[in-house]
Design goal:
The protein has about 120 residues and is an alpha+beta fold. It has one domain (about 10-110). It contains four helices and four strands. It has helices at about 10-35, 45, 65-70, 105-110, and strands spanning about 50-55, 55-60, 75-80, 95. Strands 1-2 form a two-stranded antiparallel sheet. A two-stranded antiparallel ribbon has the order 3-4. Helix 1 packs across helix 4 (about 105-110). The longest helix has 29 residues, at about 10-35. It is rod-shaped. It starts with 7 loop residues before the first helix and ends with a helix.
């Protein structure tokens, strides 16, 4: 008859290896997301950070507009002007924004790391 004996130290070693792997994966995703984030001022990319709490890892952006860069937007009215731009005859209170394409930089960073 066979006898199975579980050694706690062995399981802890496996858990430690999994935690290390998750930490390294999160670093890789974070580095790629920072490198491929859309850049106008660099604020969004510079604010990205990670939180790892095994078995979960998160790449977080405090910039409110990250979701709009990631997923894109449809055309929409902006009425919190005044807006002005070079060549405009005067400031206007509202404009019709054409929307922007999704960049999926966060999703692509995850996929490039094999996640």
């Amino acid at each position: 008859m066979a006898r199975v004996v579980f050694h706690e130290a062995g399981f802890q070693g496996i858990r430690n290896e999994c935690e290390n792997w998750l930490e390294e994966l999160a670093d890789q995703v974070l580095d790629t997301a920072r490198a491929t984030a859309p850049v106008e001022t660099g604020a969004m990319a510079s604010q990205l950070y990670k939180e790892v709490n095994y078995p979960n890892a998160y790449i977080i952006s405090p910039a409110y507009y990250t979701i709009y860069q990631e997923e894109g937007t449809s055309p929409h009215r902006m009425d919190d002007g005044p807006y002005s731009w070079p060549g405009a005859s005067h400031p206007v209170d509202e404009i019709m924004h054409p929307g922007n394409d999704a960049t999926h930089f966060m999703k692509n960073a995850l996929y490039s790391a094999g996640g």
